[in-house]
Amino acid sequence: MEYSQHFSLQHLTTFKTPGFASHFFSFKNEEELTSIVQRSDFERISNHYKDILVLGKGSNLLLLGDLNGVVLKNEIDGLKIIDESTDDIFIEVGAGMDWHHLVLHAIENGWAGIENLALIPGTVGAAPVQNIGAYGIELKDVFHSLRCWHFEENKWYQLGLDDCQFGYRDSIFKRGWKNKTVITSVQFKLSKNAILNTEYGAITSELEKMGVLNPTILEVAKVVMNIRNSKIPNPDVVPNAGSFFKNPTITDIQYEYLKIEYPEMPFYKLPDGYKIPAGWLLEKANGRGYSEGRVGCYEKQALILINTGGATGKDILTFSKKLQQSVREKFGVELEREVNVAGNYK
């Protein structure tokens, strides 16, 4: 366990915006976490549990400035098999493990189900919070359960699929339990007999270009990684937090109206409407590579907001609100932020 006061968080977020934590702890197991929350002053320094931020790799976080409470850096690692059958395998993974490392480990062992989620930045513990998803697969599709500590109730919980209330890039941890829990481990149900999902996006066409007719989970993952690398800059080189906005869902009436004016508009049909790519809306509303000051939209994907050098969290948030306004005015569509926001600015 490590503890520091007035600790800089800038190097722990992929946007690389400045901000300090009044109290910073890191922990490598549940015992260290328990010792932190049982400190005599923990309730006071966390403002009666109102000011707690659990940090993984900071890959889906916009830090606006200083955090006056407690930041807990989750570094719990490890993986173990807890059960298996002829067709399936159940694994338990430490919440601090790098998500992509888990994907690679699963592929190496022939466990299918998360290959489409390759190269998504972040930790295993952040995956259920966001219900991460890509190329037709979401975390909930392979989720079994998780273990977490609830700060206010001062107790451990084991939550199943229904308990987590998963939605599109959403869960109970972004609503009623937001900033009230820390996930320590996640259990997954993976398959020994792969049923591949290659119909979403450009996976099928890329496999055809490679001359692959019967792909393996490794080949699917490689295609996914190639596609992601072509659209999303490396945050170590160009600071960003991946997709900044969710793809909006519009009604049938909205779709019919917009399709008349924009017949080239891409879409995904849903039972209750149509999902429109936020990147397409942003590019149409603002142009490719639009920027202002120290913030911009990535030239290869407008959905990726980038820190072009020395931007503050306020700079990025202000820029994002202008983008939302431009899409609202041009299309009558509301963009919802996918990236989490924390900290204060003056």
Write structural notes for this entry.
By secondary structure, the chain is α+β, with helices and mostly antiparallel strands. It folds into 3 domains: 2-74, Uridine Diphospho-n-acetylenolpyruvylglucosamine Reductase, domain 2, CATH 3.30.43; 79-191, 2-Layer Sandwich (Uridine Diphospho-n-acetylenolpyruvylglucosamine Reductase, domain 3); 240-342, UDP-N-acetylenolpyruvoylglucosamine reductase, C-terminal domain (Uridine Diphospho-n-acetylenolpyruvylglucosamine Reductase, domain 1). It is 25% helix and 29% strand. The chain contains 9 helices and 20 strands. The chain is globular, with a radius of gyration of 21 Å.
How is this fold's topology laid out?
Elements: E1 2-8, E2 20-27, H1 30-37, H2 42-45, E3 52-55, E4 61-63, E5 67-74, E6 79-84, E7 88-94, H3 99-108, H4 126-130, E8 133-134, E9 137-138, E10 143-150, E11 155-160, E12 181-191, H5 203-209, H6 217-231, E13 240-243, E14 249-250, H7 252-261, E15 268-270, E16 273-275, H8 278-286, E17 291-292, E18 295-298, E19 301-307, H9 313-331, E20 340-342
Parallel strand pairs: 2-5, 3-5, 4-20
Antiparallel strand pairs: 1-2, 6-7, 7-12, 8-9, 10-11, 10-12, 13-19, 14-16, 15-16, 17-18, 18-19
Helix pairs in contact: 8-9
